[in-house]
Write a structure and sequence with these properties.
Blueprint lengths: L1 E6 L3 H16 L3 E2 L8 E6 L4 H17 L4 E6 H5 L1 H6 L4 E3 L4 H13 L7 E3 L22 E8 L10 H5 L3 E2 L2 H13 L4 E6 L15 H11 L4 E4 L9 H7 L8 E3 L7 H7 L5 H14 L4 E8 L6 H14 L3 E6 L17 H25 L4 E10 L2 E6 L4 E4 L8 E10 L2 E6 L1
Parallel strand pairs: 1-2, 1-3, 3-4, 4-5, 5-6, 7-9, 9-10, 11-12, 12-13, 16-18
Antiparallel strand pairs: 7-8, 14-15, 14-17, 15-16, 17-18
Amino acid sequence: MKFAFYTLGCKVNQYETQAMQQMLLSRGHTLGEFDEPCDGYIVNSCTVTAVSDKKSRNAIRRAKKCNPNAAVGVCGCYAQSAPEDIRALGVDVMVGTADREAFISQMEQAVQEKNAHAPWEKVEPANLPRAFEQLPAGGLAERTRALLKIEDGCNNFCTYCIIPYARGRVRSMPLPAAVEETKKLAREGYRELVVNGIEISSWGWDFKDGSRLPDLLYAVCTAAPEMRVRLGSLEPRTVDEAFCKTLSSCKNLCPQFHLSLQSGSDTVLKRMNRKYDTARYLQSVRLLREYFPNCAVTTDLIVGFPGETEEEFLESLQFLKTCALSAVHVFPYSRRKGTPAAKMPGQIENAEKERRAARAGQTAAALHNAFLVSQLGTGHDVLFEQPEKGYYTGHTMNYVKVYCKADGLRNEIRRVRVTQLFEDGVLADLV
């Protein structure tokens, strides 16, 4: 049987998609493209914004149109948070943010018994106690890097975020299991490992034995010293002196750190229920630059949060410049039903949110350009990934995209020297 996937959202969803792909391949099935006739279609949904919800619904309709006789299954955060929306579209199989193995088994049955298979769903409340669901680690098709999910769930309950209600509470992958998965992926030939989760800074909290993220990262880095280790998003308070001292000795840890900011205004951060202020954030940035020279520090910024004044917005822009961040992903605030922020006074019109997003985007572009300029003339080891626009492209350890005139470098790490800015990255020569 042939199955196709449509994956929305974060790297955790990407990880879970590749795990389900591995399950199907191990059972003798094949993978197809989402827009070609297949026996089964799987939509791994996201609900972080209303746009994500809409994209998930559209993907379900596309699958039904592509092959009306196929089985259609949906999993992920949108299915967890609004199963009635998915049910109304007449899908064959549905789970939320757990039970992927049962989901795959039911998809097989739905394909085999298309006319006799009754719709099947299993969406249990996310606030019920859950164990960490260990799925096969690996990479999506054609990827040179592997994904390893070490944690699921979130206990932070930021006022704008629906994810804790969709993913449930924090649960962590045991450290020995993470080490074994890392070794296996290194043996399989992956050159880079991306450590991700819904909130990886919370790894180990549920063990209640003092385990913390640096313990796991140090173990993973030393388990496969020839494989790069790149981190997912970090909560700023994770980065302290002990974090930096522990991990600065790991030469295979990529010096690219995504520190979630969301706002550069302390009053907005408080309304968001973020657990730090700008002073603590700046402390983390300075520690990283002290212990990891030439590192990239990247972030996310939400503009137009309820009640955000023009002065607070301008504070955010100034704070981005103070931190001299390497890259900033800008998002207009998305009102999510079921979150405290959705009921807050001072909801901002979409046109104003878009105006602020555009202006913040200009600041972000200038900061990113300044970071790229700082890389001119420097040498880097690049993991090459694919041909693009007549060049071979890859990324440095601090995640600068490199274009190089060369052939056949996929999954190779080669030394380069940066010569000039180009497209969304830099041109470089092999050394």
